[in-house]
Amino acid sequence: MITVKDLHKSYGQLEILKGIDIEISKGEVVVVIGPSGSGKSTFLRCLNLLEQPTSGEITFEGESITAPKHDINTTREKMGMVFQNFNLFPHKTVGQNITIAPLTVKKQSAAEADLIAENLLQTVGLSDKKDVYPNQLSGGQKQRIAIARALAMQPHVMLFDEPTSALDPEMVGEVLEVMKKLALGGMTMVIVTHEMGFAREVGDRILFIDEGRISEQGSPEEVFGNPKNIRTKEFLSKVL
Ligand code: ADP
Ligand code: MG
Q1: CB-based contacts of 175: which residues, under 8 Å, 6+ apart?
Q2: I need a surface site. Which of 5, 88, 121, 163 has the fewest CB within 10 A?
C-alpha cells in the first residue's frame, strides 16, 4: 500500500531523516518507536506530505505521491491523521467536527454525513456527545472524537502520532481500546507511540527509528523479546 524509498528530510543543514526504506502492506499495523528527536514525527508527516521530503520517493496505492505533478489533496483524503493534541475545532460541536470534511471535501449530503457520524460515535463509544463542544470533553473523549473525525473521510490508512501522550494516565486505555478495535477491523495503521504494551499486543511490525534511520525492525516478539541492535536494547531498557 505504501512504499518509501530512500527518504531524506533536512531542515536547513540539519538532516533529520537519513534514508528510510519501508513497505507497508494493506491491513498492516506498523508501530514506530524510538528516542525523542529521532525523526518519528517527521517520518509520519512525510508519509502524507505534511512535510515535503528533501529526496526519495513515496508511493501510495501504486501512485508516486512525491512526483511533482501529483495532487496531494486526493491522497491526504485517503490518509487519516491523529495528533497528540487532538486539534478539534473548538467552535464546532462534536457532530460538526466529524461531518465538516465529508460535507465540504467529499460533498456528502447532510443525511449521509450525519449517518456516518452517528455510526462513528457509536464505534468510539460517544453517541451521547454529538451536540457538545470539545471543551466539554475529557482528553480521552477528545481524542476518540479526533479518531472518529479522521475515520469519517473513510481513509485507507490511519497515521497516529503519539495519540495518548497528552492524556492523563487513566484516559490512555480508552483511546488504545478504540485503536485496537480499528486494527482488528483490518485498518492499515502507522502508529508512533511510547505505549509498549499496546505495541506488543497490536503491532504486526515494530520499527525502531534512531537518528533518522530504521535501525531495527521485526515482529513484536523479535524486537521486544530479542532486540539485536545495542541502541534498541538501550532504548527498551529505559522504557520497559
Ligand atoms: P520525534 O518525533 O522522534 O521526537 P521529530 O521528527 O519531531 O522527532 O524531530 C526530529 C528532529 O527534527 C528534532 O531535532 C527536531 O527539533 C527537528 N525538527 C522537527 N521539525 C522541525 C522543523 N520544522 N524545523 C526544524 N527542525 C525541526
Ligand atoms: Mg514526535
Answers
A1: 140, 143, 144, 147, 163, 164, 167
A2: 5
